[in-house]
Write a structure and sequence with these properties.
The structure holds 2 protein chains of 2 kinds. The longest helix of chain A has 22 residues. In chain A, helix 2 crosses helix 6. Helix content of chain A is 37%, strand content 13%. Chain A has 7 helices and 7 strands. Chain B is built from 16 helices and 38 strands. In chain B, the strands form 9 sheets. Chain B has an 8-stranded mixed sheet with strand order 20-19-21-22-28-27-26-24, with helices on both faces. In chain B, strands 3, 6, 7, 8, 9, 10 and 37 form a 7-stranded mixed sheet that branches. By secondary structure, chain B is α/β, with parallel strands linked by helices. In chain B, 23% of the residues lie in helices and 33% in strands. The chains are: A alpha/beta, B alpha/beta. Chains A and B meet through helix 3, helix 6 and helix 7 of A and helix 8, strand 20, strand 25 and helix 13 of B.
């Protein structure tokens, strides 16, 4: 739907103003706030600039989590990598191998508690990005493989009750993950979460979500919030005290 | 029989028995072979005379058979053995109960006096008995003590009565004599748990009659006693413990009484007990111990005027309370990395039962979904902070402010929970401490830091500094073995953000302080509050020690060590204490000396020599008053010190050991000790004739009241005989037998010849 110019300007101003206000309300990031680091690769690692800000905005709006809206792009070898336990890796097309130092740092990061969300903007299983990801994961954890996250996993109920792994498209109706000591350390989607989250400077959605449209987009936000919540709370929603409530709502 | 003996040995007169024997030396095998051959010969002979008349055949057969018998007789050499035998008298074990309960009075003298009188009154019966049996007297209590002679008076000094053991200790055979019967004198007041059923079993298995003399008709010793207290001797903290108390009253006009349970002298509960027709009652107490370690409990009933024994109105025991799993309540104001790494650590610990509540959405957050699409649950404030609060060992507020949840009224419960032994930990962030509006609330009264100024949350980076206490305290000794404590905090990542405060609360200790803020506010502080403890960690960046430290090449162990030690300190884990006290036993009987051992450990948890230990002895109900006794000992090179308390008066005590080395106060340890007012003999001194009756009837004996005569007493005959002398008289004297054999053979030959067979 084409928007009138006036409407576009108003929406853009609203987002910018709200973002600034939220930023000022949040103040400078606290030590324990959610800050995301976006990993750089040798390929096109930033296909959806600002998408993380959109996600973090929704996290801040909808949950009690304190966020730093500014995700930081960094190499896996950077010293401050461990100040950000949550990492995001996105891209289109293939990318080159991580250096040995990067692999070692990433391995430590993820083994000692870090979480990595990998998001294929290509949404092309078997495509160049997918091939690169699987290659690097095999180098990172040679004895482990990605496996499908079962629908009853706690990641689908950490905040919202989510029934599907959505995205901009639904190439694979599931999430894949790599577990370390019963914790999902790496989550991989080939449905282009970022594409569903991304808005332009005027607040318009950059991409259409197919086939589910706005509902699918909302589900993608919900799953993104769930993943962030999972990184911060792990299996909190598996505690027995929550079970009766969740079971009742799932009926 | 006697005629045969007189004929064979007329001149001797000593023999009273005989038997037929064989004096041959031929092996049995050959005798059997010979018998078979003779039988074959008989058959062949009979067949050979078949054409003769029947009469002649019979005569020939008889002659041949007689000859065979003579041959066999010659081989076997039979003889008559004359014997002089005598029967062995059996034994009667005369068991006399010599326990202290026999000293109790009856209308006609003490129980022991009545026993001796009964023996005197039945002297004739006993004299008659001794003609057929040897009477072996013995006293018994805890053990059997054989006597040479019956004593003039029965001693009553034994502190226990073990009837089963006394019966088991009687030898069944001694000096070649069998046990024929047991004559048991006792009041039946067994102290080793002998029941009527068990008595029946013992009597049945003994296979010897028991004649028991007891006190069936005595008008009972007037006494109200706590007969038994049954319960586990250890319990889990905060878990229900059940104690069953059995009472017995006799000789008193009593329908009901009050049973009181005390702990360290303070009343825990009281119950009314209604006595049944037999004077018995049972009550149960259920309670939840709220302190780990050993605690002295006491169950008592009031003394009734006229009671024979008053010391059995009270029974003390020690209950060891141990921890099951540490129950931790973690309430976080929002999800954060600080909360996440602490939760992960606690969840990994199998000794921790973690209950978490995180505020995932605040009241101002947008709701873009219906309630059914959310996995959120209501925050159960009322249930958590009233009914369930006492079940937690540690309550953690992690960057949590109470205000949005209208919890102001519940803060007093938390303060009270700490005063009464709970542990409270507040972890910082921009919604904690002062920033959480806790100043002036009951929570502020139990925190180790003082709130009340309008100090902002400080966002700067810093390296906390160890205090003198922090250099020794296990919570902040997080480095590698041998690593200087200060060096640890220089190599760990700097922290970010601090909740400032006015400083330490009274009685609190700072372990880590901010290095540069004015007055160096505490970053980690601890405090003992009433019976409980509190701790403050005035930052939300401690997770840097777990994760950022890994990025610096470490393994994050310092984070784990810090929180593990903090949890253990909060729950007063005895393993963290550097002063340990152990009693030789918790419950002593009257007259038993009490002793203990103190062990003092250095900061490295090795034994600390030459430490001074002041030992104070308090009455359990007056542990805050002046001690009844004080002594000082020094530890040896291994850190141990022996403590001799000697004999103490009956009651419950607390022994407190306070250790110091130079000017440093190391710590305190306490243990209870109980001195029973009475020995087990007088706990339930009532006669129990039913036990004696069960023993007697199941063994084929009889029960007599101490007023009855023993005239119907019978002893089983002895089965043993002794052979004093023998004499062998041969039956075949050689020649007559041979002559008879020849005559028989000649007669047969003549008849065969006459018959034409030869």
């Amino acid at each position: 739907m084409a928007l009138k110019r006036r409407e576009l300007l108003l929406r853009g101003a609203a987002f910018a103003g709200g973002s600034a206000m939220l930023g000022s309300l949040l103040g400078s990031a606290g030590a324990s706030d959610l800050c995301i680091a976006q990993l750089k690769t040798s390929g096109k690692w930033n296909p959806r600039p600002d998408t993380l800000r959109r996600l973090l905005w929704e996290v801040a709006q909808r949950t009690s989590i304190e966020v730093d809206l500014d995700a930081v792009a960094m190499d896996a070898t950077e010293k401050n990598l461990f100040r950000r336990p949550f990492l995001y890796l996105a891209g289109t097309g293939g990318f080159g191998e991580f250096s040995a130092e990067a692999l070692q740092k990433l391995r430590r990061h993820l083994t000692y508690g870090g979480t990595l969300l990998i998001d294929s903007a290509d949404a092309e299983p078997g495509g160049p990005f997918d091939v690169s990801v699987r290659r690097e994961l095999a180098r990172l954890f040679p004895r482990q493989e990605l496996s499908r996250v079962p629908p009853e996993h706690v990641v689908f109920k950490t905040f919202y009750l989510v029934d599907q792994a959505a995205g901009r498209v639904i190439r694979t109706p599931y999430l894949e993950a790599l577990e370390i000591e019963k914790r999902l350390a790496i989550l991989y989607t080939q449905n282009d979460f970022g594409g569903a989250w991304a808005r332009d400077a005027f607040g318009r959605w950059e991409q259409q979500c197919t086939p589910g449209g706005d509902h699918q987009r909302e589900m993608t936000y919900r799953l993104g919030i769930n993943i962030v919540m999972y990184a911060l709370c792990l299996d909190y929603k598996e505690d027995l005290v929550h079970a009766p409530f969740i079971l009742k709502r799932r009926r | 029989m006697n005629a045969l003996i007189r004929w064979l040995a007329p001149e001797e007169g000593v023999y009273n028995d005989w038997r037929l024997i064989s004096t041959t030396s031929v092996p049995e095998f050959w005798i059997i072979a010979l018998a078979i051959l003779l039988a074959i010969a008989l058959v062949l002979s009979a067949l050979g005379a078949s054409r003769l008349s029947l009469q002649r055949r019979v005569v020939l057969f008889v002659l041949r058979a007689a000859a065979a018998a003579v041959v066999l007789g010659l081989i076997l050499m039979p003889a008559i053995e004359l014997r002089a035998v005598s029967k062995v008298r059996s034994r009667v074990a005369l068991l006399l109960d010599a326990s202290r309960s026999m000293d109790l009075a009856t209308p006609a003298g003490t129980r022991s006096e009545r026993v001796m009188q009964h023996l005197a009154d039945n002297k004739e019966v006993l004299d008659r008995l001794s003609a057929d049996a040897v009477i072996e007297p013995a006293t018994f209590g805890e053990r059997l003590h054989p006597l040479e002679l019956l004593p003039a008076t029965l001693p009553t000094t034994d502190g226990k009565t073990d009837i089963a053991r006394a019966l088991a200790d009687i030898p069944f055979q001694a000096s070649g004599r069998d046990l024929g019967a047991v004559l048991l004198y006792s009041d039946g007041a067994d102290t080793e748990g002998l029941t009527v059923e068990r008595a029946k079993e013992i009597g049945k298995n003994l296979k010897i009659p028991i004649y028991a003399v007891g006190f069936a008709t005595e008008s009972a010793t007037a006494d109200l006693a706590i007969r038994r207290v049954t319960g586990d001797d250890f319990a889990f903290l905060h878990n229900s413990v059940t104690l069953d108390v059995d009472l017995e009253a006799r000789g008193l006009d009593l329908k009901a009484t009050t049973v009181t349970l005390k702990r360290d002298g303070a009343i825990v509960a009281s119950k009314e007990a209604e006595l049944d027709g037999a004077g018995r009652a049972s009550v149960s107490f259920e309670f939840k111990p709220n302190r780990i370690g050993r605690t002295a409990y006491e169950v008592s009933v009031p003394v009734v005027p006229g009671e024979a024994v008053t010391t059995n109105n009270t029974r003390s025991f020690a209950l060891k309370v141990i921890r099951d799993r540490i129950r931790v309540l973690q309430v976080a104001g929002r999800p954060s990395w600080d909360e996440r790494f602490l939760r992960e650590l606690l969840k990994r610990n199998p000794n921790v039962d973690l209950i978490s509540f995180f505020i995932l959405r605040s009241t101002t957050d947008l709701q873009k979904a219906s309630q059914d699409e959310l996995a959120l649950i209501p925050f159960p404030v009322n249930e958590l902070f009233t009914k369930e609060l006492g079940s937690f060992d540690i309550v953690i507020y992690q960057n949590f402010t109470y205000k949005p949840y209208r919890m102001a009224n519940y803060l007093a419960y938390i303060a009270d929970y700490v005063e009464r032994g709970g542990s409270f930990l507040m972890i910082g962030g921009n919604e904690s401490f002062e920033d959480g509006a806790y100043a002036g609330t009951p929570i502020a009264d139990v925190l180790p830091v003082r709130l009340g100024g309008s100090m902002p949350w400080d966002t700067a980076e810093y390296r906390p500094r160890l205090t003198a206490e922090g250099r020794r305290h296990p919570i902040t000794l997080v480095g590698e073995p041998g690593e200087p404590p200060e060096a640890v905090y220089q190599r760990l990542p700097p922290l970010l953000g601090a909740n400032t405060s006015l400083g330490l609360a009274p009685g609190a200790q700072a372990l880590l302080v901010h290095p540069s803020l004015p007055q160096n506010p505490p970053i980690v502080a601890i405090r003992e509050v009433g019976e409980g403890r509190s701790m403050a960690v005035a930052t939300d960046s401690l997770w840097f020690w777990r994760f950022v430290a890994v990025g610096d090449g470490g393994a994050g162990r310092e984070f784990d060590r810090f929180w593990s030690a903090a949890m253990r300190w909060l729950i007063k884990d005895p393993e963290l204490s550097r002063v340990r006290l152990s009693m030789d036993r918790t419950v002593h009987t009257l007259g038993q000396p009490a002793s203990a051992e103190a062990r003092v450990l250095g900061p490295d948890y090795r034994g600390l020599g030459d430490a001074s230990v002041r030992v104070d002895l308090f009455r359990a109900e007056r542990r805050d008053a002046a001690p009844e006794r004080t002594l000082t000992v020094k530890t040896g090179p291994e850190g141990n010190a022996a403590i001799d308390l000697g004999q103490l008066a009956p009651g419950s005590y607390v022994v407190r050991a306070t250790a110091s080395a130079g000017t440093e106060r190391i710590g305190v340890a306490e243990e209870p000790v109980i001195i029973e007012a009475t020995d087990v003999e007088l706990m339930a001194p009532f006669p129990r004739p039913e036990i004696l009756r069960a023993l007697a009837e199941s063994s084929g004996g009889k029960f007599f009241d101490v007023g009855e005569s023993l005239s119907s007493l019978e002893i089983r005959d002895s089965r043993r005989v002794e052979v004093d002398r023998t004499r062998v008289v041969p039956i075949w004297d050689g020649y007559p037998a041979v002559v008879l054999l020849v005559a028989l053979l000649v007669a047969e030959w003549w008849i065969r010849r006459r018959s034409g067979l030869l």
